[in-house]
Structures are given as structure tokens and as C-alpha cells.
């Protein structure tokens, strides 16, 4: 086949603009939000759904959740919940009444409105790895994260069209002081990417600063910023059964200003949750739903997402495991429950592997396919995560993007179309039993777009591959990483907006940034 | 947790016997046939199923299939099909009447009746890689296959409880002359394994010799051998639209003697089949269903399996691609059609990667999960395949078995159970918001079997893993391979049976084995 002309043809059309903007290092798929057309995998019977719901409700009614944030406790008390110190118990009627106010889908619009995403409604959004304190690449090995590495990973986040949201810090830049880290990273994120941004709920100043920076980057008035979601936060409960002060503070701040909120209990069965998966899921739901109930009480209709991060520990060592069979089933069960509650679902790509090897891929593939099967709408850590979240890796990021593009292509309705043109009876008749389909018109008219074209897989035979250096996947990924970063062009930003952002960062640094207690 | 005692406990019980028999190198799951409890992923609407069915039937009715085997043509003519030279056209009424005679499930019993497998009825069986002419391991690189390597891979086939059937030659021993190769490999297979065996349909002598050797190994009379399936063959059509002489010959021989038959068209969209996936599936079905119709006409109720191996080519190079999004959808669509026709389904594990790296794992994982989603009953090449089937690799075999065990565990109903014990409300109450689940009774009673325990994944943190040599998955797999092969103990075989097998091989070698035309 005419490979060269095929490549040329592909870099035109929809993908042309994106490629030119980002530097056409690889032939990637265009920006598009995949829709999950599969019927979800539902391991629970109707009785199973009822049993887990009842378990979650009884946890909230009988055992209660510890809300360490006094303001949240006061609000829930006012709402009629039973308060005992910091322990809040809420009846299922209240919870279900609040959940009924939550939208089943909503949009978030970043500074580039073309990057607007809808959360829910069958969409499936992929988000970069977030929050690892360490970095690994093929040359450096494992090292503490730096701002330079964080910038590189933000460039990958922007470059890949299959990454739809710029989530948390793709690696923690531990060379930047925590008091001003959010200012530097958000400046980098808002200038290097134009996708939806995120604020860590780690104290009032950080959340407020990020909201202000997102507002400035979008060229928005305060009213415009608050009129519809422009960004989001993600909080984790402190399992078992606890929500801490700053997370709830950030949660409530975002809710009040109309921004989106995701709550993701990190419930490792056998450690912070029961050893049985249904128990771990029930506890996770209880921890998440009470936060969503709080949000809906504060602002009915607040855009909320139910997150799942239920996995298991290694019973030999206590180490967390990811992408396991148990993890897959927990994700699918939580998907069923999210549909029961009418809430959008967040899941994750994840693995326990220390390097981007075979184990990393089967664990991540398991995690990603369970997100598909669960009908997850947001997939955190979809690219770049290693060592149970302790390492961010650019090679892993690139390898994961190859898998994400395949999932996106998997959802293309063309693959399962059954029109007469697809059944191709006349082509089959024309070729007969002695011919070949390469040459027939039916093939010639379709070959350029008929199949998924990987950017990282090497489909050459062993000998060609060997003559060309016999590169293993991780080595090819390293080269792609370097090429993307070296050729990266940031998305456009108006000069006055950039200056306003710079001035904000400078002022807030002069004021000392966010307080730190160490 | 008490890791050591946990390991000891696990090697007792069900798995104990298998471990002692095979040498307890690793802690693997016990022999068990997984049941696929998931609702299949069905990308086709009812109209889509009807459209593909109609396409397949029109291929058979209007275009016809070339049957190069004169005997098969004569039989089909007698059955009322329209014959024009070697081209056979058959009406949908005849095809559907014949398919209605085929069982939706059946058993095959090998020499060890404990290794009996049921094909169909929700079971999911995994089969070793079959037929690559080359071998790759971490030390040898790619080399032509030998009998010694073939024996090593047969040892892995026997050792792993997650491999249920000993399919074709796990690597072609090209150091054994083709005239006697089937005698040597079948002797090795029948002495090194006690699982269901397979005969290549590559000429009368080979099929008859293998049937005879399986009969001898099972200690069966001729009548006993023919009373129920003891082995099977797998044939491939010569796509497009052709069945060759020896494949049909072997097909009919096995059918007449009551053995199981699998027909698997190898339809690469864009090459031997239409570039559109529905067209490739329709053509594949036509090629398979006419062989099954022939089998049912010869022997109503013959145990038949519908195989799928529909993938796509790389449109740049023409190279076959595997585990692609298109491959996944074709597998799922064929699964829907298999249920429509009431036939058991064979799918495959596969990849285009040249070495067991990241690409190998994401492609194989895609292929295996699509087999799950399709409701496939037999999964060929489930362990050990590389380079589009041109390489068999022991490391890849071991890595794939880790994935297969996870799929097996994924189907364990315990993972999604929702009894009050699973919801664990009292444990959650007991631990409260300040405790930990490690210590509670609910965990202690269950931790030994609560979670899947991998034998190859390394879940230690980076530093522990690094201090212990920083082995990547493929290196760990190589070590496991060597340990298994070195410690291998063959399953028991009565001495007189072994002698009878040896005598048969000796006699057939003296007679010249099978004729070769080169």
C-alpha cells in the first residue's frame, strides 16, 4: 500500500490543525470525546444492588461519618442530620433527596472552549496521571519530581488528543516550596495546556488561588466564572469513614462558586475497608455519597461526580495492588451503583508495577477495560502512572496513550456497521476464491481510514524490526517522549492574559503563597 | 500479614496435588474450568445480526465456496447442494437445517479423565500457542524451532493449571523431518501432558496416526475411542472462500470417528476478506458454516466449534495486526453470531509484537478481553504467541498465564457476592473511623483466600524491587520458565501404554511416516 501518501492524507483533515499546533511528531488521532457505546458489564443482580445500597445507607444512618470540618458539621446539622461531636449520621431519605438534585451530566469549559468536556451522558474522558512524588524515565531511573519534569508531563498532557483533561500535578515538583507550588504549577498548566484544569483541595489559599488563575486564564469576569463549571476539584475521604478539614473546605468552596467536584474514597479492601469487595464498595459509596449530599444541600444541582478507587492489598506485604481482578469487579459494581444513583462515575488507570514493562501493561489494561465495562465517565491517571501512584513516567504516559487511542477507536461505530456497503457482498463476489482484497475498489475507497493506525506499536516483522535497532516498546516510547517535548508548541494565549497571570503569581508569592505547617 | 504461613496454607487443599505433581515452583491456581458469568458485549443490533447472517447466507447461496476435496464435493452434491466444478453453493435452508443438528456444547476426554473439558455451556478454556515455526527466549533470541524447545513448551502447557488443552505443536520442531514430526511431537505431548490433544489435518496419515496414538495413550479400544470425543482437529479455510484437500480430509476423518472439529477461517480484513469488519465477519462465517454443514450431514450431532480469527492488516505494509480495536469488535460480533447459530465459539490470544514487551501485553490483553466479552469457549494461542504467530516464547507463555489466571479469578463469584457477610456492616462498625481492617476478625477469617495472588507480578515497592535486582517482567518470566522446566515431573503413564506408544512410533517411522512432497 502507498504508505507515504496515506500518512500525508491522514495528517490533513480533522487531525491537521491539532498536529500543526502541537508539532506533528506522531500521527495521532484527532481531539474527540469518545462515547462508550457498550452495554456495561453488571456483575450485581438487582438484589445485589439493593444489598450494597442498603449497606451504604446503614453505614450513614447507624455508624456515621466523621466530618472533621466544623463548618460542614454545622451545615449538616442545620440540614437535620444527627451530629455527635464530629460524627454525622444521615438518614437515607435525606441522602436520596439530596442525590436526586445532582445532575447526571454537566459540562466543564476551560480557557479554550474547543476543549469543553461533558461529564456523563455516555462520554468517556481520560486524564493524565496526577500527584506522584517521584519521576522515572529510562535514563534517570526513579528520582524525586521536579518542576522541569512536571512541565514535560504537562506538555504530553496537552500534546495527546486522547487526554481530555489536565488533572492534578502530573508529578509533584518537590523542588518548588509547597507554599508556592500551586502557583508555579498552575501557571505552567494554564500556559502549556488549554484543557480543563483542577485544584487540589489542600487549604483555602490554594483553592482560591487556582480558581482565580483559571478565571484569569479564561479571560472571565467573576460572574462569568461562577456561571458554569470552568474547573474542578477531586477530594479523597480519609478511609475508613472520615472527611478531613481542608478537603471539605475545598469541596464547599468549589461548590459555592459553581465549580465541579469529584469525591473518590481510596478504599483498599483489607486495609482501610472490609476484605470483601462488596463491603469495600458499600463503604466507599457511603463516604462519597455523604459528601455529595452536603454539596447538594449547599447548592442544589451542584455538578458532582462519584469516584471509585477500590482495590485490594497484597496480603503478604500489605502493599496496595492495582488492576487486579478484585479491582475490576469493584469498579464494575461501583458503575452499577452510580447508575442506580444517577451520578457520573470516575474510575482510574493504575498499576503496581515499578517500570513500564509487561506487568505495568496488563495491570493498566485491566484497569482501563474495567473503566470501560463500568461505564466510567472520567478516567483519572489514565496515562503515566507507575508504582501504585508513587511514580510518574513519560514512557508509561506514551504507552498508555497508545492504549487510550485504541479504546477511543474501539468505540467508533464504523467498526460494527452493517450496511450493505459494510457487508460487502459485491466485493466478495468480485474477488472470488482466487483473488485478493488489496486491489479491489471496495478496499481502495476505504483503506486510508479503515483501521486504527498505532503510533507506538511496531508491526514490522522481527527481521525488519531487528535491523532497525530491535527497540522494545519502552525505548520507542522514550524517543517519542523526547521528540514531543523538544518540538512542543504551547497553545496560544493572549499576551495581556499571560501578563495578568504572571502578575498574580508574583503578587501571591510576595504575600507568601499558602501557609505551610512545616 | 503472615506471608510464609499463608503460602503454606495455599499449597494445600485443591492445588496441593497439582503442585506436587508438577513441582511446586510457583504458587498457581488449582485446575478448574472457569465459567464466563459476564453478559457478553454485543455491538450488533438485532438488524445487524440479521444483516451479517444474510450476508453469510448469500455468499453460500450466490457466490459459493470452493471445496478442493473431491470427496467433500461428492457428499455435498448428494446432499442437494449446487456443484459447479469445485464450487459448491448451498441454500440457507440446508445450512440452517444442518446447523440445528450441531450440539451447543460437548465434552472431550483425554487420557486423564480429570482433565476432561466441556466446550460450550459458559465454560472458557485456554489453549497453548500453536504452530509458530520459530522460538524466542531472552537468551537465544529468535531461532528456528526444535524438538527440545517444543518439549519445554509442552512442559509449560502441562504445568500451568490455567491451560486446559494441549493444542497444536507449541513450536514447530523444524529439526525433525516433516514425515515423522507428528509422531515425535505427539509422543512428547502424550507423555509430557495428560490434557486434551489435537491433530493437524495435514494429510490422511498424520490424522490417522494421531487418532491412533491418542487411543493408545488413553488405553481405549477402537469402539471406546469412537464413542465420544477424545481429541480434536482445527482446520483453517484458505480465505477467501476456499477449503483445501487435506484440511477437509482430516475434518471428515475426525467427524466420522466421533472426534471434535473446529473450523477457523483466518480472515484478515483488507487482504483475504473485505476491508470492512462486518464483511470480513460475514465471509468468515460463510467459510466456517459450510464446513460445519458438511460435518452435520456426514454425522448429525458431530461436535463442531465455530472459530474466529478475523483481524486487519497494517495498511502501510500489509502486515497482519492483532489485538486491535477492529479485532476486538470482530471477535465480539462473531460471538453474537455464534449464539445466533447455537454453536460453541473459538477465539484467540494474539499480538503482532516481536518480543514480550509492553506492546505484546496490550495487544494480547485486548485479544483476551475480547474473547471474554465475546463469550468464547476455547481460546487458542492463549499463552506464548509473538510476532503474529511466527514466534513461540516461553517468557510470553508465562506472562500470558499470569493474565489467564487473573481472568479465571475475575470469574470467581466470591468477588461480587453481596451476602450480609460480604457487605460486612458489623466489621465496618467495629473498625469505625479510627481503626484499620488488617486486625479485625472479619479480615482474619478471610484474608488467606480473599484476593488473587499473582505468581509473576512484583508488588513490592521500587526500592525493595531494586535491591532484589530490579528485574523486569520478562526477566522474572525467564527465571520461572527455567525453574518449571528443570523441576518438571511428567504426569504418570502406565509402562505398557508407554511401550505401546513407543512401538507404534517406531513402526510408523520404519514405514516412512507421512508422505512429504518436497
TrEMBL record, chains A, B:
The keyword Zinc does not apply. The keyword Repeat does not apply. InterPro entries: MttB-like_sf, MTTB_MeTrfase. Its EC number is 2.1.1.-. Residues 1-26 are annotated as: Disordered. Gene3D superfamilies: Trimethylamine methyltransferase-like (3.20.20.480). Residues 1-12 have a biased composition (Basic residues). It is an enzyme of class 2 (transferase). One of its GO terms (molecular function) is methyltransferase activity. One of its GO terms (biological process) is methylation. Belongs to the trimethylamine methyltransferase family. This is Methyltransferase. It comes from Actibacterium naphthalenivorans.
Amino acid at each position: 500500500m502507498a504508505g507515504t501518501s496515506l500518512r500525508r492524507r491522514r495528517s490533513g483533515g480533522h487531525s491537521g490543525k491539532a498536529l500543526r499546533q502541537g508539532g506533528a511528531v506522531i500521527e495521532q488521532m484527532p481531539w474527540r470525546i469518545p462515547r462508550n457505546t457498550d452495554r456495561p458489564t453488571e456483575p450485581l443482580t438487582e438484589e445485589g444492588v439493593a444489598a450494597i445500597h442498603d449497606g451504604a445507607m446503614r453505614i450513614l444512618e447507624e455508624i456515621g461519618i466523621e466530618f472533621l470540618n466544623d463548618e460542614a458539621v454545622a451545615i449538616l446539622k442545620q440540614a437535620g442530620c444527627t451530629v455527635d461531636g464530629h460524627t454525622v449520621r444521615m438518614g437515607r431519605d435525606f441522602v436520596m433527596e439530596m442525590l436526586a438534585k445532582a445532575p447526571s451530566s454537566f459540562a466543564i469549559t476551560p480557557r479554550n472552549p474547543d476543549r469543553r468536556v461533558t461529564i456523563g451522558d455516555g462520554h468517556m474522558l481520560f486524564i493524565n496521571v496526577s500527584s506522584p512524588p517521584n519521576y522515572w524515565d529510562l535514563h534517570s531511573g526513579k528520582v524525586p519530581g521536579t518542576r522541569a519534569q512536571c512541565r514535560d508531563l504537562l506538555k504530553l498532557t496537552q500534546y495527546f488528543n486522547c487526554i481530555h483533561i489536565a488533572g492534578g500535578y502530573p508529578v509533584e515538583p518537590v523542588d518548588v516550596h509547597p507554599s508556592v507550588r500551586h502557583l508555579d504549577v498552575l501557571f505552567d498548566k494554564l500556559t502549556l495546556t488549554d484543557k480543563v484544569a483542577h485544584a487540589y483541595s489542600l487549604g483555602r489559599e490554594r483553592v482560591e488561588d487556582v480558581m482565580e488563575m483559571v478565571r484569569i486564564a479564561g479571560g472571565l469576569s467573576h460572574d462569568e466564572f461562577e456561571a458554569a463549571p470552568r474547573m474542578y476539584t477531586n477530594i479523597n475521604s480519609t478511609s475508613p469513614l472520615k472527611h478531613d478539614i481542608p478537603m471539605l473546605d475545598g469541596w464547599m468552596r468549589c461548590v459555592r462558586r459553581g465549580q465541579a467536584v469529584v469525591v473518590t474514597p481510596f478504599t483498599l479492601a483489607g486495609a482501610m475497608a472490609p476484605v470483601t469487595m462488596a463491603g469495600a464498595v458499600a463503604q466507599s459509596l457511603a463516604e462519597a455519597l455523604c459528601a455529595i449530599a452536603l454539596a447538594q444541600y449547599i447548592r442544589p444541582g451542584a455538578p458532582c461526580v462519584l469516584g471509585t478507587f477500590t482495590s485490594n492489598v497484597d496480603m503478604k506485604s500489605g502493599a496496595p495492588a492495582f488492576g487486579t481482578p478484585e479491582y475490576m469487579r469493584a469498579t464494575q459494581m461501583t458503575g452499577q451503583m452510580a447508575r442506580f444513583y444517577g451520578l457520573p462515575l470516575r474510575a482510574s488507570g493504575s498499576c503496581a508495577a515499578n517500570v513500564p514493562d509487561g506487568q505495568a501493561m496488563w495491570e493498566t489494561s485491566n484497569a482501563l477495560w474495567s473503566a470501560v465495562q463500568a461505564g466510567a465517565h472520567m478516567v483519572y491517571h489514565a496515562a503515566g502512572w507507575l508504582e501504585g501512584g508513587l511514580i510518574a513516567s513519560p514512557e508509561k504516559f506514551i504507552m498508555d496513550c497508545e492504549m487510550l487511542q485504541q479504546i477511543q477507536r474501539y468505540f467508533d461505530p464504523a467498526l460494527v456497521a452493517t450496511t450493505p456497503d459494510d457487508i460487502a457482498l459485491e466485493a466478495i463476489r468480485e474477488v472470488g476464491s482466487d483473488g485478493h482484497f488489496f486491489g479491489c475498489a471496495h478496499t481502495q475507497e476505504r483503506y486510508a481510514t479503515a483501521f486504527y493506525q498505532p503510533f507506538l506499536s511496531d508491526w514490522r516483522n522481527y527481521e525488519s524490526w531487528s535491523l532497525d535497532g530491535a527497540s522494545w516498546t519502552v525505548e520507542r516510547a522514550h524517543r517519542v517522549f523526547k521528540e514531543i517535548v523538544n518540538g512542543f508548541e504551547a497553545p496560544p494565549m493572549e499576551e495581556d492574559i499571560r501578563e495578568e497571570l504572571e502578575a498574580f503569581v508574583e503578587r501571591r508569592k510576595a504575600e507568601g503563597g499558602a501557609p505551610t505547617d512545616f
